[in-house]
Amino acid sequence: MLKTEENVFQSKLLEGYDRTMNQSGVSGERLAARLAELSKIGSTEENGSYRIGFSKEERKAKELVKSWMIKAGLMVKEDGAGNLFGRLEGKNKELASVISGSHVDSVPNGGHFDGPLGVLAALEVVEAWKETGYKPERPYEVVVFTDEEGSRFNGGLRGSRAICGELNMEEEIRKIDQQGNSFQKVIESDGLTLQGFKGSKRELDTVKAFVEVHIEQGSTLERENVAVGVVTGIAGPSWLKISFYGKAGHAGNTPMGERNDALVAASEFVGQVSQIPQRLSKTAVATVGKLQVYPNGVNVIPGKVELYVDIRDIHQETLDQLTGEIAKKALEIGDQHGISVEYEQTLNVSPVPIQEEMQQRLIEAVEANGIKPVLLPSGAGHDAMVLGRHVPSGMIFVRSQDGISHNPKEWTSLGDCVQSVHVLKTAIESLTAE
């Protein structure tokens, strides 16, 4: 990559940046430079990021962040799962830590903000304190979690699940990536071991709270014309595998009135799915994203359709209710068309509501920085979802241009990024003062 090309991302970030935002030790230029440096690691031809979990690119990104942690004066430690922690001692070293951070791995050909912004925002708080001479009452830790995206083994949040004791290692060691490499082989190539993974569980009474900054990956904040928002809950996914069984037949010789077309029934169901969530919950969503038709011939009436429904909400009660309503609708449509229907729930992850006390703390931090509070749910899973099952946790969302994410076009302005640092800094100072 040419030097002029290397500087394009940083230049775009700095273009139009209001330098009056550089207050209280926070530096937009430093944040832009670091986002740009990380963007070079695993850069794709489409100017995206390719740093899947346990890859040499994820490792290189961690090492770069580690160097910045050390430069900022943090004591750095990596656990057996590859999670990186940079610790700043507080006035009282015996108190439980406040932690902030995110991840540096990406989906294949992803964007440059998903994950890195949360890590660098957390680190920028330390840099700001260093410049202003501020010292917190209790310890503060910046974390880089391993393999949040889960692109390699179809299941992420491994670093955060490891420290919370949620990983089933018997299941993990059976996993194989697309290249046929075992989980053990992959982690060993990254300098990790199975034994290290097993021993990476942290005593969570050493953690007072966790706060994660993350791009919204949606368009609510853009519609509201607000830089940052406070997350009210993280949706739990419920997946339904639904099979419609009709009767395959010749497309030319079978009269229309004598058909048992599985695809016709499935198509009606797909159209109905999008209308159900809004009747039950303002924060619920449902998506049919995968569908297979059998025998899938141009001149054959479909005899079977197998599809998957991704159902999400931040409230367990309505998530369960929505799952039941969608399954019921499939059965009803099957009956109407003389089609047999079977379903099974293949995934059921409990949503994590953000505690009202934490929401209020973050709302106050937003207001203290002159920003209108906007409350919104997270439809995607994050490390805060895992930590939130064990310790008080919160999330600060940052505006995403056009709601695009997991894409090289993913973009968040530097001004919005810096606003999120100021809000995080205010919140962390509040949490570490107690």
UniProtKB/TrEMBL annotation:
PANTHER family documented for this protein: ALLANTOATE AMIDOHYDROLASE (PTHR32494:SF5), ALLANTOATE DEIMINASE-RELATED (PTHR32494)
CDD domains reported in the protein's UniProt record: M20_bAS
Highest rank taxon of the organism: Bacteria
UniProt record similarity statement: Belongs to the peptidase M20 family.
Peptidase M20 dimerisation domain boundaries: 235-331
Pfam families: M20_dimer (PF07687), Peptidase_M20 (PF01546)
Name of this protein: M20 family metallo-hydrolase
Keyword terms, alphabetized: Hydrolase
InterPro entries: Amidase_Cbmase (IPR010158), Bact_exopeptidase_dim_dom (IPR036264), Peptidase_M20 (IPR002933), Peptidase_M20_dimer (IPR011650)
